[in-house]
Automatic annotation (TrEMBL):
SUPFAM superfamilies in the cross-refs: Glyoxalase/Bleomycin resistance protein/Dihydroxybiphenyl dioxygenase
GO biological process, alphabetically ordered: methylation
Protein's recorded name: Glyoxalase superfamily enzyme, possibly 3-demethylubiquinone-9 3-methyltransferase
UniProt KW keywords: Methyltransferase, Transferase, Ubiquinone
Superkingdom classification of source: Bacteria
Length: 125
């Protein structure tokens, strides 16, 4: 096996999602991005966030499924301020599956699904 990478398949929103994620996560790096001919649809992009490699694309085939909350990106925040800011930004146009709170296993934890359907678990211990 050469590598293992998280793959996020969008249906026409990949470019918009990448731009949004760059705003939320200032250290998100776009390693490479290719667009489909004459469009803003992402043929393939490679992103890096805190050592996590993400591949992103727009499917050329419409599917009857999207992201599921049971698969999520887990982020360990460095401060209470950081987790509050990220939760507020992601939740703004998304929805809280578990609102920011103390759940026993973490001083501060939230599980948020963003407006694109991608789920993010955030913790601050």
């Amino acid at each position: 096996m050469k590598s293992a990478t998280t793959f996020l398949m969008f249906q026409g929103q990949a470019h918009e999602a990448i731009e949004q994620y760059q705003q939320w996560f200032t250290d998100l790096e776009v390693i490479q991005i290719e667009y489909m001919e004459n469009s803003q649809q992402v043929a393939m992009a490679t992103l890096q966030l805190k050592g996590l490699k993400l591949m992103v694309n727009d499917s050329v085939i419409q599917h009857n499924f999207s992201f599921t909350p049971s698969t999520s990106i887990f982020l360990e925040c460095e401060s209470e301020e950081e987790i509050k800011n990220l939760v507020n930004q992601i939740e703004e146009s998304g929805q809280a599956l578990m609102p920011l709170d103390h759940y026993g296993f973490s001083k501060k934890f939230a599980w948020i699904q963003d407006r694109f359907g991608v789920s993010w678990q955030l913790t601050y211990s």
